[in-house]
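Lab channel / #folding
Pinned by the channel admin:
"Please post every new chain as: sequence first, then the structure tokens as a reply. Keep commentary short and put observations after the output so the thread stays searchable."

First post following the new format, from NK:
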Amino acid sequence: MALTVVGTAGGWGTGAALADPANPVLPRPVPSPVGDASTAKEVYALGGARPPGIPWVDYTNRAGNEYFPGAKRDLIDYPAGAPFSWVPSMFLPAGYKPDRVTIGVAAKDATNSLDKAIRNGDQPAAAVGLSQGTLALDQEQVRLANDPHAPSPDKLQFTTIGDPTGYHAFGKSFLAGLFPPGSYIPFIDYTMPKRVDSQYDSNRVIASYDGLSDFPDRPDNLIAGANAFAASAIVHTPAAFTGPGDVPPQNIRTTVNSRGATETTYLIPVNHLPLTLPLRYIGMSDGFVDQIDSVLQPIVDAGYSRNDNPMDRPTSVDPVHGMDPIGILDPATRDTIEGTFAQVRSFLPPLP
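Reply from TO:
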């Protein structure tokens, strides 16, 4: 049984290790080097869905930047606007070029482009995918798993951020909970990839409660489900702009697969419960919303079996160190969002 590691450097202090009690003397697995220790010289960056009005190129270039600082960024373009292919042209802003393909076709295009970049690369590299872009990373790892001409494991690693079809050490995504590997998902024209033991080290970066990549494994908990759906809109994309130093030791777990490659999950705490964050944004006092959260958070956390054991449960909410989903955005987007909420507050009566 693989060991579990919880440890990192940064504002959370030194790491700690937890070993399987049945194998107390086994050496702990070491995560692949990230942050200042990263050896990647180039990043193949695949962004998420490209809706109108979003600075997609900037978001893609920033995604995972703190995990691989200083690396050259190679943006892998693909039909990222596929989720919005149904929107009539009359409702699209001027200059926006729609991608009239399915998500499945877009993922295949992205995988082929990523594969070409990897095979043409000549230096240590990391493939980084955000949200929809992670589909290409999942497919490419399957493609390379048994390819005798694949790059050597010391030349490549994979990092997914908010994978909507993936699994991680603390749980799994919404779609993975509904569709097993090999299943065809008709509404996005996509087939869930096989689960393989990749020869490459990988990282799974997940925001706590994110309804796309961290859905409750007890779906009958409706409050947890509602919180997850709120989180998918609030914390999903901002997770891309965090770094390994933003994750506490107990939220980092590393396992080693049958081929000797590591898979490390970074579960990012958020600053407040996503379900009630909008109340704070429209002007309710932190003290008042904190009282609401004190009732709701235990219910939400009960929707995740990982919280059952208080000795090794991860930290989901931390008001001091947790991710601020608006504060972490680029200044222009942050100012726009804060300005919108300021306008909303101007129309409301005084709130508690």
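NK: Helices lie at 56-62, 103-120, 134-145, 174-178, 222-234, 277-281, 286-301, 331-347.
TO: also worth noting, The longest strand covers residues 262-268.
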